[in-house]
Amino acid sequence: MNDLDDEIPEPADFGPLSGTVSYGIKRAYLRVIRDLEASLSPLGFTPPLLAALSIVAATPGIAPARLAAAMGHGRSRAAPLLDHLEGQGLLERRAGPDRRSIGLHATAQGRTALRRLKPVVAEHEARITASLSPAEAGALPVLLERLAPDNWAGRESS
Questions:
Q1: What are the phi and psi torsion angles at 91 (to 5°)?
Q2: pLDDT tens-digit map of 23-39
Q3: Which of 41, 83, 103, 147 is the one with CA 20 to 30 A from 52?
Q4: What domain of life is recorded for the organism (predicted)?
Q5: How many domains, in total, are found in the chain?
């Protein structure tokens, strides 16, 4: 039994939220992210650290502000992630061509860490999709992207 099972009695009545996509995604997210955190923790990573290093490795020279935007964070939330990754020797900040800008680059050690993490993430994915058929597991990322595409702003706040 995990912590989430202790927090949410089964069956629970969630009133108007019962059976909704929104609440189903939230409950799934909590369980999935906890599994990912537990998988990454022994290697000294968190999901945001992995995301930041992955984006930097795939986009050499990316500006810190662009990285923060890609992660859906403000710059103030991304800065500690970058400081941590740099302190671990996994990325480096380099002066840009105009000397005022900074570009982020994964180090050889950072790229090695990503190779080490790839099978950990694959095992996590296999675990969380084990109850799905191969067709369902393949369709789920597509459906989630259709539900909330990158360019979707959602309901604008008034």
A1: -145, 165
A2: 889 989 999 999 999 99
A3: 147
A4: Bacteria
A5: 1
